[in-house]
Amino acid sequence: METYPITIGGITRHVPLIEPLPGRRIPLVEFLGDPELVRAAAQALKPLVPAGTEVLFTTETSPIPLTHVLAEEMGLPYVVARRRRRPYMEDPIIQEVQTLTLGVGEVLWLDRRFAEKLLNQKVTLISDVVASGETMKAMERVVLRAGGRVVGRIAAFRQGTPALEVLTVAELPVL
Question: Which pLDDT belongs to residue 165?
């Protein structure tokens, strides 16, 4: 399998190149199972979290360990939007994502009991990779619908030109 080198926070990994859509190859960044890379990325992102942030908000799956380490380092709680409905969810906030970056449509689900943790809070959105920015837009809509206020958007990697301002620390190509 062909790989591509990525570097963040002084740590380099050779990640697989995938083709989510015909003629479009991208490096697949995966934070799951790589604590050294997660810590390096969290340290690099920490200065980008706006002062006054009260809660971090992310989506499953790959950004969870990154958000967890960042939350732990900063002494902040975090909330995770799911990408499918879980049986325990009551009155969830449901938000469609308009992106096809990975070749699939998505929906974000946030259980009401987790949504309540965003109410009247200053929230920073956290992601692993931002490409079109559509997932970040959907995350922002979830936070607003839950009664929170987005004060920052950060991601470890930027790929292309997102449709909104997101602070990042490293670039990824679209090949």
Answer: 95
Task: Give the 3-state DSSP-derived string for the chain, with helices as H, strands as E and coil as C.
Answer: CCEEEEEECCEEEEEEEEEEECCEEEECCCCCCCHHHHHHHHHHHHHHCCCCCCEEEEECCCHHHHHHHHHHHHCCCEEEEECCCCCCCCCCEEEEECCCCCCCCEEEEECHHHHHHHCCCEEEEEEEEECCCHHHHHHHHHHHHCCCEEEEEEEEEEECCCCCCCEEEEEECCC
Do 152 and 124 contact (CB within 8 A), yes or no? yes
**Residue range 83-105: mean pLDDT, rounded:** 81
pTM: 0.93
37-86 pLDDT, tens digit per residue, is 999 999 999 999 999 999 999 999 899 999 999 999 999 999 999 989 99
Separation CA 28–CA 30 (nearest Å): 6
